[in-house]
Amino acid sequence: MSLTIQDYNNNLQTNEKNICDILCAAINKHLKNAESKIWHAHPVWFINENPIVGYSIQKRGVRLMFWSGADFEEEKLNIIGKKFKDASIFYNEVAEIEIGDLKRWLKKSNSIQWDYKNIVKRKGLLIKL
Predict the structure, then answer these.
(1) Number of separate domains in the chain
(2) SS3 128
(3) pTM of the entire predicted model
(4) Scanning 17, 40, 64, 103, which has its CA 20 to 30 A from the CA of 94?
(5) How far is 117 from 23, CA to CA, in rounded Å?
(6) Would you say 111 and 98 are in contact if contact means Cβ atoms under 8 Å apart?
(7) Which domain, by its residues, includes 79?
(8) Buried residues in 14-28 as b, exposed as e (16+ CB within 10 A)
(9) Is 30 part of a structural domain of the chain?
C-alpha cells in the first residue's frame, strides 16, 4: 500500500479504516499493474493513467467506485453514474464485503475500460478501450 493511501486510511474512524484497508489490500493484490495515488482527495488506482477504481467516505458509507463499472453487468454495483460509465457499491461494515465479488469486479475493471484519461481532450466524449 502506498504511504499516502495508508495515511488516508489511518486518518479514518476505526470501522471505515477497517473497510478501506480490506479494499486497498484486495485492489493491490488483484490489480498488480495499477498505480495508486490520492486523486481529488481520495485513493484511486490507475492503469496507463486511466482511473479504474477508488474509494471515498460519504454519508451512505464507504463508496467503492469503478469508473467503467456500468458495463460490468453486476447487480450489486447498483449505484450507476448518470453522466459517465461508473458504478458503485457502499459498505458500512466489514462483513458486507464479499471478497469473491470484489475479486471478480477487479478482474473486469482490468479488461473493461473507458478512456477517462482523454475525456477533457475529447470534450466529454468517452471512448471504450
Answers:
(1) 1
(2) strand
(3) 0.91
(4) 40
(5) 23
(6) no
(7) 3-111
(8) eebebbbbbbbebbb
(9) yes
What does the pLDDT profile of the chain (129 residues) look like in tens digits?
678 999 999 999 999 999 999 999 999 999 999 999 999 999 999 999 999 999 999 999 999 999 999 999 999 998 887 778 899 999 999 999 999 999 999 999 999 997 888 877 887 777 788
Report if residue 128 sits inside a domain.
no
Q: What is the CATH number of the domain that holds 74?
A: 3.90.1150.200
Neighbours of 112 (CB within 10 A): 20
On the CB side of 127, how many CA atoms lie within 13 Å of its CA? 8
